User: Fold these one by one.
Assistant:
Number 1:
Amino acid sequence: MGAPPLASWPWDNLGTYKYLLCAPLVAKAVGGRAWERGSPDHWCFLLLLLFVLRAATYHHWNAFSGMLFLNRRRRVIVRGGVDFEQIDKEWHWDNFLILQLWLAAVAMYAFPSLRRLALWDARGAAVALLLHVAATEPLFYLLHRALHRGRLFSDYHSLHHSSKILQPSTAGFATPLEILAISGLMAAPVAAACAAGLGSAGLLFGYTLAFDFLRAMGHCNVEVFPGWLLETVPAARYLIGTPTYHTVHHTDKDCNFCLFMPLFDLLGGTLNDKSWELQKKNSAGSDDIPGFVFLAHLVDVMASMHSRTVSRSQASLPCRATPAAVLLWPVAFASMLVMWAWSETFPVYSYRLRGGLFDTWVVPRYGFHYLLPFAKDGINRQIEAAILRADRMGVKVINLAALNKNEALNGGGTLFVARHPGLRVRVVHGNTLTAAVILREIPEGTAEVFLTGATSKLGRAIALYLCRKRVRVMMLTASEERFQKIQDEAPPEAREYLVRVTKYQSAQHCKTWIAGKWLSPREQRWAPAGTRFHQFVVPPVLRFRRDCTYGKLAAMRLPDDVQGLGVCEYTLERGVVHACHAGGVVHFLEGYEGHEVGAIDVDRIDVVWEAALRHGLRPAC
């Protein structure tokens, strides 16, 4: 048997090119200067404007749903975040907007009087409200109950219920058959008002956007109504469905079928009495304490838009410059200034692993801030406040990311441990695993490497590890004192394998470069053809040489049983995190005691690597 009729969208194969289906209306609006009030094509402009406003309504509810710092305690379903599978499945959630745009355009052609609506008529609004309560609500209730039976559920409505965690975009995630039916119920009140000669553009916009607003709110997975409201005004329970109320329908599919008004569930005997108790509990808030926090920072203005609050879909892909991101750059720049002046560390996303909640928090500072001498104290205050907050919450491990553990900034975290010796939260930098990942990328039998950033925490550990393996390490550094200090740490029989160099020319015959400091194209020219560039520098080295190969930043893939992960970490692939992040995860899973700050213990590099593999983490390459 073939697929049931109207169970899939006819433009599924178009991907994002589906928006070209709107092109005829856009062309007509532009050609007829439809934005001018007197234009005969003004209706076309209004429909396109309504299309944009509707999309914006769902987008802003999606953004609100993703704001952990604002709504975490009032989440209805707490399972980490929305995972990649659900994001991919709901990627084209807005198909219904395109269909309804064309249904409205057909109606405008079929009934020319609709093209000349008044701006506003209060009588029409009253008629629409009456028809919504008397017709749309009960008919939707009956339709929804029918969709939960037999083939209608298995062939159609089960798609909507396949989403694990409700999101505003889930409201539009349905089959064409369901959308056509809902469109008819949605249009009925406005159509009746227009048929009575009481229609208006204000009614068309107001009713449609209110409908979308309530649908998105009901699926947002955040309880937005205070518990006292429904207790103080008991009748309100039957007039408006809360996000908790609709979530109960998705967990217990035989109840709470109404559109917006639970009154019809009461009349139909399908109202779940536990809905109000759950609503009160969710509105009061509940603490879901993470066991692990990865304390990151923003890389640059463009990367700051790689966030669920900007675009859930784009955040689920590796960070890259898109046309939309370029257009939004001025807004993101203004946001950067605001955060610099007033913001504090905040959570951005979370996932679950082995029963624990793993958070990523962001220090509201960008990469260039860490280069400003006068910003150093402010950044450290932000990091310190985050550590103390995590300690008060009962977090087990807080993992400093990238520049937040810079040696010149805070000694790799030693500053905070020294200031607060009674910390219960374990402060770690995760660089032990980063060193292990980089070292595993170097082929067996390599006799010589060239190392930049040689006296940094990672550079020191890599140099000491390799010299023990009898690999000659050319350490690029201008400081004889720092080089000598590292050489003195090496076993006496291995010290001869550490060689200090001061110029890139010294490596012109070495085909293994390890970059701990950014390499300009001019500096890369000194590498011979066939060189492999390994790196632990942010931002990554530009791939300037076509006759050489470039390794990616040290990273590891999280275990397969990770749940609720739906955000890519900077430019990395799905499910992959930076090695320092993975190092913190291993620290948590292993239950290591004490902090991991300051210098890397070279003797533990192999131990941590084996622990990572034992817990199911894998090299990203």
Number 2:
Amino acid sequence: MGGACSRKRDQQVDEDSENRGVSGRYCKSGSFKWLGNSLSRSVKDNELGKVRCPSLMELCIYKIREDIKKYSTFSMLPRDISQQVFNELVHSQILTEVYLEAFRDCALQDLDLGEYPGLKDSWMDVISSQGSSLLSVDLSGSEVTDLGLIPLKSCTNLQALNFNYCDLISDNGLAHISGLSNITTLSFRRNNQITAQGLSVLAGLINLLKLDFERCPGIRGGLVHLKGLTKLQSLNVKCCNCITDADMKHLSGLTNLKELHISCTKVSDRGVTYLRGLNKLSLLNMEGCPVTAACLETLAALPVLLYLNLSRCNLSDDGCEKFSALRNLKVLNVGFNDITGACLVHLRGLTNVESLNLDSCRIDDEGLVNLAGLRLLRCLELSDTEVGNNGLRHLSGLTNLESLNLSFTVVTDGGLKKLSGLSSLKSLNLDSRNVTDVGLASLTSKCLTGLTHLDLFGARITDSGTTYLRNFKNLKSLEICGGGLTDAGVKNIKDLSSLTVLNLSQNSNLTDKCLEMISGMTQLVSLNASNSRITGAGLQYLRPLKNLKSLTLDSCKVTANEIKNLQSIHLPNLVSFRPE
């Protein structure tokens, strides 16, 4: 389903779609499905578009940042002020090893250095000089090695450590932090060096609440060492293909577990049986595990299970009647399974469900009748199913629905009129070659003009169709990439001032003139105009877009140097751009 211009998002747990660390600086500039976790801290209110006066403290911090070369130490300042100065230097990426020395013995509490450039072992002496005041450290994506962790032994009150993507840390490094008994949160995502032996040193960290070893392929057999961590509430071993049913047995006594992520492991129905006694488990992610509907019998015994991900498993209609016992579920993902409308019959009683994902299942119009009673449903994914116009009538009573994905379905223009009663709808995905200007016209009822996200990526929208978009004053995200737009079409949407994400790629007739019209969209954070006739000369029109963080102009007559010049002089917040 879909067409040549449409996207097919069916990759299994794309590792590049995961945010690295907690810095929020990572983005997928090509797909425009991201929105940074931490937008630039300017003195503009991005929601209201109003300028506010910076506080006196902010002005002082900014002045210190500008004159940072003048300061040799901040140890005489109150801790909260030196913390703010540190945070500002990190945010501005001005902090260097030389400037870091000024923060020695400042009793800082939180050092968020996730993916900070140049961070290595030589920085760790100043970091550890914060001593017992230090509560959290994020070193994700750094070049810190095992030796660099030795100084942290003196930071006895540390509660949170993040070493995601630190490829130079091994079992030996884990040993250096084994005495930090106050740690509650520890993360080592995507590390090829850590083994079961490394996990053995964690046995003494009895206060651990959250543990993350996602994409650590060497921890085979290591979960046995977690048996004594009885306070543990969250465990993530996603994409650790070495994890098997035997490992689940070691988790059976962790009765305080609330979240368990075992997606893309080798855990089968047999392994799930060991989870029966985890009565506090509210979230279970088993995406990509070789489980069948037989596991539902065990899951039905979990009294507070609210979030269940069984996407890309081995589910079929056989045995799906056991879904009916999971009456507390709020979120259910069974996408990419071989289930039909016969399975949906057993979901009718799950009246607490707020989010349901049926992506790429063999669901047709008749199957949707079973969803008509799920009145609390807020998010429904029907992408790449056999749902058509007739099926949409069963959704008309779901008045709480806020997000609906109909991409790659057989829904046409005629069926879209049946969505007119969904007054709560905020996000609508119509990435399909079956949708044209005619269908867009039917969305302009008063009930639907509150949309904030509209995906028309592969829809056959022309300049004429964009006139209907003028009614969607609240749109924050818009994608029109079917190839039918010219500059005249962009003119019709130039007054959508709330837009933060705009994707106009694949429209080969767009010229520099379209950038001139976009120049008034000052809230834009992401812009994609790839595969168009835009040139370097048109970049001048982007100068007013001070909030722009991502710019993609692939296959345009624009060079990386031209974008870098624009960034350095006019767009200081631009952190991701292509070509690069």
